[in-house]
Design goal:
Blueprint lengths: L14 H20 L3 E2 L5 E3 H4 L4 H6 L3 E3 L10 H5 L2 H8 E5 L4 H10 L8 E10 L11 E10 L5 H16 L5 E7 H10 L6 H8 L2 H15 L4 H5 L2 H5 L4 H11 L4 H19 L7 E3 L13 E7 L8 E6 L13 E7 H10 L13 E5 L2 H16 L4 E3 L6 H10 L4 E5 L1 H6 L2 E5 L5 E4 L1 H8 L1
Parallel strand pairs: 1-5, 7-8, 12-13, 12-14
Antiparallel strand pairs: 2-4, 3-4, 5-6, 6-11, 7-9, 9-10, 10-11, 14-15, 15-16
Amino acid sequence: MQKPSLPKGTRDFGTIQMARRNYILDTIKDTFQLFGYNQIETPAMENLSTLTGKYGDEGDQLLFKILNSGDFLKNVAENDLQNGYKQTLTKVSEKGLRYDLTVPFARFVVMNRNELTFPFKRFQIQPVWRADRPQKGRYREFYQCDADVVGTDSLLCEAEIILMIRSVFDKLKLNDFSIKLNNRKILTGISEAIGEAGKEGPLCVAIDKLDKIGWEKVKEELGERGFASDSVEKLTPLVTLEADQLGKLAFLKKFLANSEIGLQGVSELEEVLQILTEMGEDLDFVELDIMLARGLSYYTGAIFEVKVNHVSIGSVSGGGRYDNLTGVFGLSGMSGVGFSFGVDRLYDVLEELDLFPEDSFQSTKILLTHFDQKAFVYSLSLLKKFRAVGIKAELYPDLSKMKKQLDFASKKAIPFVGICGDAEIESNVIALKNLETGVQESLSLEEVIARLK
C-alpha cells in the first residue's frame, strides 16, 4: 500500500487554516478595492519565453519547468545532452509555472491594451511556484496578493502603496512593523559613485543578501562578481550609516553628488515622503533603507520591503516601480508600480503573535438537533428560514443520540444548538442552547433569529 505524501515545500490547508487564510485574504481584497483596484486572474502556466530573463540569473534557475506532452525527448539529439541542460531545455519544455504575478500581468497588459483604460489598476490573488529550498516561511507553492497600477509615473501611486500596506496591517492588528523604502536609481548612482558604473545588477543581487549573510560575506561575493576591493570599501559608510530620514537623504546627496540618476532617485524618495506628509500621514513606520536592493532585475524606481518586527519570519511584503517590463513584450513607455503581500508569511506572523480573532474559524452559527424522524422533518422547515435571513445554519443529518449531536457542535465550535423535540413542535418553538454558557431557552423562531443576527 502506498503511503500518501506531499511534495516538499507544499501544504494541505484544513478548515481552520482556510478560515484564517480567508480572514487575511478578505482583509487584503477589501483594501485593494477601497483604493480602486479591480481583480484579474492569469493561467498557472506561462510560456517559458515569457518568464525567462525577467528575474535575473538566480530567479531563472528557480523556475519550475513543465515537460512537453507526449514524447518530450523526440527532438533531443545525443550532442544536445552533452552540451548541458540549457541546450536540451528548449527542446523538452516550452512552458513553466509562474514565478510571480507581475510578469504575467505585464504580458496581460500588452495582450489586452486596446480594451484597458489607463492608468489601469489591478489586483491579483493566486498561487505562484518557485523551485527554492523549503524552510520556515519559505515554500515552493505559495499565494501572492499583488496590486499594480500601470500607465502613469505619478509618485502618488508609491505613496498609496505605503498607505495600503499600513491599512491592511491596521486591520490585522499588526502595529509593530517597518516599511523599508529605497530607489533603484539610488543604487545605480551608488555603482557609479564607487567607480563601478553599469554594474548595478550584480551589486543589487549581492547586497540583497545583506540581512541574511552579513557585510563581510557580501564583500566576498562582490569581489567574486568582479568588483574592485577599493570600490567595495567605498560602500562601507553606506552600510554602517546610522541616521534619521533627513540625515540619510543629506548623506546620499553628498555621496551621489556626481551621479545625475542617483540624485533623481533621492528626489523621488523625497517627493513620496512629501505626498504622505501632505496627506497627514505619520511617517514613523517608514524607514529609508539605502541598502535595500530586492533581487528582481525589472525594478527601475522605488522599491519596498515590509518586515514585522520581533517575529521569526522575514519580509511579508515587497514591490517597486518598473518602467520597462511591458517593453520586452512590445509595448514601451508603460511605467508601472506594484507590490505583493505574502499571505503564507502573514499567516505565520499572525499565528506566532496569536492575532487571529477567535471567531475567524466560526462558520455555522446554529446546529439544529432532533430526537426522532418527526423532529427531523420539523427542523427541515426551520433550516430554510434561518438561511433565508443569512444565518449560517445546518441540520445534523443522522438520527443519533443527543449527546453525539451536541459533541459534534462543540468540536466544530458552533456556538448555538437548536433542540427540537415533541414539546418544541407542540408549542412551535425552539430550545436554543448556548454552548458556551450552557443557558437554554425556549424561543419562537423570530426570537431565535433576532438573538443570532
